[in-house]
Amino acid sequence: MVARVEGNQSILSLSLMSVEHEFRVRGQLRTFKRHALLYSPGDQATHLFLVSAGEVKVSRYTTEGRELTLEHFGPGAIFGETEILLETVRESQAVARADLTMYAMEREAFRQMIETDCRFGFWLTRLMGERQARLENRLETLLFKSANGKVAQVLLDLALEHGNRTDEGTLIDYPITHQEIGNLIATTRETVSYAFMEFRQLGLISTRQRKTIVRDLERLGEMALT
Description:
24% strand
């Protein structure tokens, strides 16, 4: 019997805790070491996943062999759902960016979950809409911003999501290399390093123990618009 949804309030009342509970009940707990490959392009899409601890990087490679990072998924995030819904093979690869614990739910169990309570379908639709909006914003960044503007935008996003206030500025408490930033914005590690050097010279950022401190968020935001 399919559950009915009585108005928007019933849809919005579905919490991430409810989704995580379903993954624990219907899924299988799996663990992976850092850098482990979870799936590759061409693999059959038999499961979708929920990250319990750690982080996953989902990326694609261009015909020239350059990596383009699509998303980083941390605790509480669901990934791998697109090919499940479209019934296609994997188009990207997923790698454990850190030691990883996650729940894997089979495609049929996922369908049963939605049939039991259709709020899960609405929840997933909203989730995919938010991801689509993020990808469109990233595409705009890739097409219309300068190299320095792209790097500045990444630093701003990281400062907002992982920033901690210090006497020197906003410490980005998130380990990321220049190569990984380049993979996010489809540019080279050398270009990212050059942008960092310019930002340091302008007094926008500084570094401490391989972590970046944003000293002037407002000016960095202006740089991100270029």
